UniProtKB/TrEMBL annotation:
The keyword RNA-binding applies. GO terms for biological process: cytoplasmic translation; ribosomal large subunit assembly. This is Large ribosomal subunit protein uL10. Residues 307-322 have a biased composition (Basic and acidic residues). InterPro entries: Ribosomal_protein_uL10 (IPR050323), Ribosomal_uL10 (IPR001790), Ribosomal_uL10-like_insert (IPR040637), Ribosomal_uL10-like_insert_sf (IPR043164), Ribosomal_uL10-like_sf (IPR043141), Ribosomal_uL10_arc (IPR022909).
Amino acid sequence: MTLAESVRKIPQWKIEEVEYLTKLFREYPVFAIADITGFPTKHLQILRKKLSGRVVFRVSRNKLVLIAMKRAGIDTSLFEKILSGPNLLLFTKMNAFELYGEIEKHKSKTYYKPGEIADKEIIIPEGDTGIPPGPMLSVFGKLKIPTRVQANTIVVAKDTVVAKPGDKISEDLASLLQKLDLPLKEVLLKIKYVYDRGVVIPGDRLKIDINEYVNSILKAQIQAINLGVEIVWPEREILERVIVKAYREARAIVVESSFITSETIDEIIRSAHFKAYMLAIELSKRGVDIGIKIEKPIIEEKREEKVVKKEEREEEKEKTVSEEELAEGLGAIFG
């Protein structure tokens, strides 16, 4: 048998499928591989409808998918291991995290079936069930749900936990949940891997807390700006802050050293007046009569001065004046 004859025997639908998949792999920079084992067809159709126009859904044979990947120039070494069982391919131009976010946003709920495992606590709520008394009373009894009959219907006396995470769903519980119209099982498409512009991301790495992520970025930005100010990084935004910081620090040094200029004279006088006031207060606490009336100074601080001097003044208020400082202060006041 010649090679040409063996090629002719390949079904036409397989050739067309590989060509179509190859086109999708080349056209879309991002694709996901999802496990659809046991995934309800109804919910898959709903998801397809909601993501129509942004995501292309395709179910195909795994061998044909690998052939198409190779033709599109994608390294298949990883996918050869994970392409087993029934899979769904999702092609998109969104990034991997956007795609996962859209899938999670449109997750739905269905009824638990007998034998399935509860993924969270199941509670039968208090209230009228609308179910007439009869055989169902025994079901409530088996599940240890307190009830009473009122107006010819079964009423649940209080919220009752009937299953915890990891518990197997019994036939009685599955039946009751359907009768009470409680579809509590979350249906979310399980993403195995996402290929995003050459980067392969495992499905369990795709779920992120957006608010936490944004806060982390803002925090990193603030830290980066502060570091830039400290090392005087030559960027416009940084240099503006550096100039303001340098001006404040220089002004504080000038005032502290009592270097008099037309810009600092008022602030130096206010600072001296304040220190004298604090010294007088401390002397009065110790019973020293300095022979003058102590009046609280009126200090009109500029906004920027408050920022520079706030911590320093708070420390001065709390600090205990030593005997030497008292002597120096008295000498300054009385000569």
